Write the structure tokens for this entry.
Amino acid sequence: MTDPELARIREDFPILSREVNGKPLVYLDNAATSQKPRAVMERLDRFYARENANIHRGVHALSQAATEAYEQSRERVARFIGAPAAGQVVFTRGATEAVNLVASSLSGNLLQAGSTVLITNMEHHANIVPWQLLRDRTGIRLEVARVDDDGLLEVEDLKKKIVELKPSLLSMVYVSNSLGLVNPVREIIAFAHQHSVPVLLDCAQAVPHFPVDVQELDCEWMVFSGHKVFGPSGTGVLYGKAERLEAMPPYQGGGDMIESVSFEKTVFKGPPERFEAGTPNIAGAIGLAAALDYLDSLDREALVQHEGALLAAAREGLESLPGVRIIGNGPDKASVVSFVMDSAHPHDIASFLDVEGIAIRSGHHCTQPLMTRLGLTGTARASFAFYNSMAEVELLVRSLEKIRKFFG
Amino acid sequence: MADIEELYQEIILEHNKRPRNYGPLAGSTHQADGHNPLCGDEIKVSLVLEGDRLRSIHFQGQGCAISRASASMMTEAVAGKRITEVRRIADTVLKALQLHGPDLVLERDGELASLLGVRKFPARVKCATLGWHALLAALDGQQRISTESAGA
């Protein structure tokens, strides 16, 4: 990507031109949440200024228009992830709620007392705690595939556990949120299927970085968060194969998810409405569609290459600093760099960078079991998006060098 | 850089590099783990209580410069003191570290006054209070305390 091309993209994100602590903002906390392009803000503004109404069942013009916009957003999401039909896209509050939805709805059918759910040691708490809650409530078993000393998934251990433990479900992350490592999920899903194990794939950290196609991956369920892919906060998506969603009972009960209600018997709608009780985040879904429109208006192949160049420069820069160690080195990595410094704790690093206007994250990144496995309490994490520049990577490295000298 | 230099004063950096009373404490009578769930940091405080006195105190564990320096200074400030005095000092420090808390002054509070720089970094206050909460928990006979349940 040329400098003028990047400059044009950066202009689409108003927040990138503000100052923080008197310095130009350098936003490297994209794995926590992404910034929003003006197109998303304008779409939200237009919805509230011109189109706001509750969806479904309204006879008046605004309600019909809002319903149409909401359902078109579903189609937009389906197209974004390669889902065969819009009806296989359920809107949620985020990836976390999507995992909870699946855990709740599979309880009592696919997952019974004694059933095994297999996860990995690099999962976000969002893909650990819902299964623990289910374990405590219903007596399922939770098993964990190992990661090695470098934070890489031990694929052979995972396969062995698929064969030996015969799990009812494999639920795992595509891209590690704390280390950026990309798991070979295509191979793993194919292997799981050979052993009749369905797979839930957490794509929260994948979709912001590269195109994801659920039919190509062939996963049974897939979840991601809208706010990490340049959409509004409070939005998320659950995709499921049609027959899987069809077999799942409701998650929450309420309006909009029923065919008919009497005190004796309530008949539920089919997917996706069955899983969307109550008034959903209508504006959020529409804003998410605007974000995906924006993303797809860019040359995504060029974005992938640009992020790859940022990652390579960041790795090289950090490796050149004595006493700095990158955590999670693997051949396949999204543009996320987790690191520790001998002389400074991640929090100290983050406070110093903040003074320079650089936003990174420090701590366990909601992956405490992974940190424990690696013998760390936390790391400092710089996570990039396509709107970050080489100059920002260089500033990060220069600032880290200053911090290193300061703490000696 | 003024604020950050106030946070990371020479004295803080020095305690971070060479923490006092660091490591396990032989014959300890009371122990508590302070845990900061926001970052995963842990500081263990071990005490030897004798009658109404804190005979000796050690700390150990993982933490940032602020939490280590604060715990290190704490051990020097409270070792050998009567328990009522220890609690008074802890209370003074915990109150002072709040956003609009009363000041600590060098003449009365000594090195502890250097902790005040943290007030301009609200996200870091819990780093500075971690060891103190662990100390109070140990005095109360608790084995574990979280900065989230203890308040700031």
